[in-house]
Structures are given as C-alpha cells and as structure tokens.
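Below sits my pick:
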Amino acid sequence: MQSSSLDDEALQVAGPGNTTPDAIFDRHWAVTVLQRAMTGLEAEGRAQGRPQLVEHLRPWLMGESGYGDQAATAASLGLSAPAMKAVIHRMRSRFRQLVKMEIAGTLGDQSSVDDEMRALFAALAG
C-alpha cells in the first residue's frame, strides 16, 4: 500500500458520504494495521532470501488483482500456476495471522480479536 499519507488514503476510500471523524479514524487504524502486517511479511520474505516475493504478490494479498494476472507473475517468478496459487494461499494465511497479531497487540482482552478484525474490514469497506 503506497499513499502519500494516511489522510489521503482514508479520505479516498471513505468517499464523500463517510468522512465523519470516527470513520476517518477507523480507516487510519485499519490502514496502519495492514501496513504494519505487510511490513512484517516483507521482513519475513527478506529473512528467507526472497525479498521481492511479497512485492510481486501484494495485489493478491491486498485484493487488488484481476483474474488472469497470476500466470504472468508466476512466469516472472519461475513458478508454475499451481505453485503460484499455493504460494498466494500461504502468504494470505500468514498475512492474516500478522494482521491478527497486530490487532491482538492493541487489546487487553484477546477474546475480542475477531470483533476487531470485523471492525477492520468494515472500516476498509467504508
């Protein structure tokens, strides 16, 4: 996720009908959580000797890719289509774990992590 600032990012996704201070704050929180989780995933990729992998897979991790894009990316990474799907699945799973860990780190009561995950998705949906 690259944006000039979290304010710009929050306002772009929130849209004109959902720019209340609470909605903007929630959007900032959600974007920050995702950025921190992505940074963790990138660090893991570097530690495993595959620093570019996360960057190449970012569209599928962030839900930004269209159908058919996987074949070209798989070829550029030297992966077969089934291997690419498996890598994306594992990375999505790990990304979700990192997001949950980021959320859990902000809570005193770990039982509300799932509620906070739903709040994160709601904030992103606008």
